Amino acid sequence: MNKVRVAVIGYGHLGRWHAQKACGLADAQCVAIVEPFAENQKKAKEAHPQVKVVADVKEVMNEIDAAVVVTPTSLHFEVVELLIKNNKHVFCEKPLTATYEQAKHIQKLAKEHLGLVIQVGHSERCHEAWERRGEFKAFFEKAGTARLNRLAPFKGRATDVDVVQDLMIHDIDLMLYLFPEMPNKVEATGYKIRTPKYDYACAEFSYPSGRRVIITVGRNHVEEVRHLEVTNDAGCLMVDLFRNEIIVAEGKAQGPDDFVKKMTYGKRDHLLLEQEAFYKSILNKTTPMVTVEDGLKAIKLLDLVMLSLEKKEAIKID
Ligand code: NAD
Question: 177: Cβ–Cβ under 8 A, 6 or more apart, which residues?
Fold first, then answer.
């Protein structure tokens, strides 16, 4: 195989961008867009007249090697399960599934199909800032208090799931990626504001080392906020994921000119990087950039956040 024959499944808000990447990458041949709704089918046909548009992936199963799954989260499980059972490589948007039980089942299936590349779309790992962590080691290696905030005005999207599955999953994955230890307790609070699901949630994760990570997400906020802030005895580090800035106030800094340093980092096309990595993993038979195990770990914590929200109490993490 020198090109991966791929179908993009779901042509909604994000699917149209995934289809654009799949149609433009040298390692892929986008052979189909799968979309059941007529209005979105029409948009897909207009944007990609050379690509077959079908309502069900079963119609093109024999023509593809892989699929990019961009359906609503509540459908990830059934779509990914069907693809793996048909021996297809899968790139699935975050979160891998809506529940931990479903993700465990996908992990089992993946183990039965070891030759397949299953990649999860935890795109926030693609920020260039994380590659510069070495410059700010003390903030990541020593225990401290970290805050991850991801809030936005209401857009009416992804209301099939709580804001925990929609937004907090990004930050749970970042937390696991950036801080190399597992938390042992989580306590969450949340509010249902505009939908029957949680539209706001705040979860505090405690670690055996004394580290604390507080993740706040909301989809009914007054403005767009996306940042990581870490404070410990080295000082304060802030990464603004929206403006692509790293701002640091190190404890050892001396004069007023030197005290707060602001740097920018390059904006990247995360979907492009993820899809490029996906096809390279298939063609070179290498481990994907975000594995099923990574996706499962994030969903395990996500489920415990939901449990804490429902029980209104702190939950131990084993
Ligand atoms: P959306 O509702 O706009 O689009 C989903 C599309 O899937 C719709 O067009 C719908 O008609 C289609 N669909 C429904 N059932 C289908 C089926 N059985 N087969 C094929 N298509 C089907 O949703 P969205 O905002 O594009 O989100 C899709 C996924 O992408 C979600 O899982 C979400 O979590 C994820 N997402 C990730 C990011 C990110 O930053 N990585 C951003 C936005 C969304």
Answer: 122, 125, 130, 294
